[in-house]
Amino acid sequence: MNFLRILKISLKYKYSLIFSLLTALGVGILWGTNLSAVYPFMQLTFRGESLQTQLESQITSSEALIKTLQEQYKDPSLPEPERKALGYKLMKEEYALKGFRWIQPAVLMLPSSPVKTIFLLLVTLLAFTLLKSLFLIANVIFVARVTQHTILDVRTKLLQKCLEMDMTTYSTEGNATLISRMMNDVNGISAGIDSLLGKLVREPIKMLVCLGIALWIHWQLFVITLLVVPLIGWIILKLAKNIKRYSHFIMQEVAKLYKTLEETFFGIKIVKCFMLESHETQQFLERGETVCRGSIRVAFFDALAKGVIEFSGIFIVSLALFFGAWMVISGGTHIMGIPLSSRPLTFEWLVMFYVALLGAADPARRMSDIFTSIQNALAASDRVCEMLDAPIKVQQPQNPVKIMPHEKDIIFDNVSYHYSEDRPVLKNVSLRIPFGETVAIVGPNGCGKSTLINLIPRLADPSSGQVRLDGIPLPEISLEDLRSQIGIVSQDAILFDNTVMNNIRMGRQNATDEEVIDAAKKAFAHEFIESVLPQGYHTPLGPLGGQLSGGQRQRIALARVILRQPRILLLDEATSQIDLESERSIQKALSEFHHGRTVIIVTHRLALLNITDRIIVMGNGNIISSGTHDELLNHCEFYQQLYQ
Asked: CB burial class (10 A; 0-12, 13-18, 19+) of residue 9?
């Protein structure tokens, strides 16, 4: 079971688990102890006898009964089955007598006055209740500590898994789905663990203590109350399956709801300009209605389960009370000819038996409250573990080859790539890029340009063929060694919600402030950082660097790459969405920075072609031609069309 896999993570917090169990045990024992005060209170109130007198009466009565049973047991004419039953009654009564004599010294120390004894009893009850409350508070704290640390570990594992995924998986799954699993699904697990380690440990202990008291008072009557339990268990099991199934369905629909929100907010400019507010609202409502219907069904099954459990508890108590009252009123020891007791059941013991069953019914009712959260956690665990168990397509090598700084070439050898069998992106591409060459890759949208350069840092691996760096296949190089030599600037310059200084420093985290500023100067970003931004390099950029223009973001992204000093520079449409001034600044920065490293540029802007040594023309997943700009204009009709 996947939920058990998640629970195993909590075992590392063993001390908190142990203390949570001990405090739960304390709550359960004190719960039963407090209820047990009902019997002496009734004896003192209704009979007006001191506990010493009552105990002496019990001892005298027990000794007389033992003497009678011993005489009957010695009768040689007694049939063997009856002798065995009589022997059991005798043994039980002897144990009861030992118990009475064991507590007698403590009882003799109590006040002889019934009123004083009641006062002492109530003070003790209040003290025990206070102690139980302290145990309960401690239990909640320890359970919360285990739950929250476990959930943090699960989310960390999920994040690590997401960071190991290749770019194709991100495109297929979508950010909203991944976020939904990390947040919404894991929240479901959190509620389940909290319920399991909290109420589902604490309440059964309370219930077992009370059932133990009822069993001790009259085990035959207790057995009668359990006759309907198998039927109740079968009904609850059926309800549990329905709740788990619909909980799983709801989680899938919530992920779609997240996706709708993500697309709406990401494309808010299009939504507003094309007046799609009503359309997006309607789409959200339709998916929200699906979630609502599923949630209502879960609520129905949850309410049904609670009703079954509550009705069953009252039915069991009523059954026990009926037969118990029959025995008290009749003063007998048999019900419908069936022997149930060796001595008549008194009113006080019947009330105590009833209180014990009620004491067990309250924890049972509380356990019904966590029924849905456990089923929800089971469904959430299946979805989370499905993600944790998903195969990693880009694997670290078992025995990585140590590589030197890149100095020879990058080779694509019959490389093909497809998202699925019917969606080929690259088809048997072969290409050699010598070290130090600046290459531009051009072609229409969807021809595989970006996919080709994504294979170099192993953001994805080829479906067939091989990519080699300085003669070594990329899968044989550790990802750290490979990616440490690569810098990339993409079409959407990704910046983080941090300062300018820290965003640039992500290129090399141990860089000094002076090195960061020098990189910004080389990227022609220093001037606007100092003159335009209110706090200079210490200005927070907001989510995704949203406070900057496209050109400003690209120059900071370029500064980050310059600080990294990579041997391989990848530019994926880096100037496609910026103004002319920013493009000229970036072109000037690259004209100085591209020397002494391999540079691969995916572009359709002529300005960047001026610094290239060679242009690769792609179409429909293949390399159509290559050469300089002038050569391609002379002999490549496809390039001529692109140029025009």
From this structure: middle
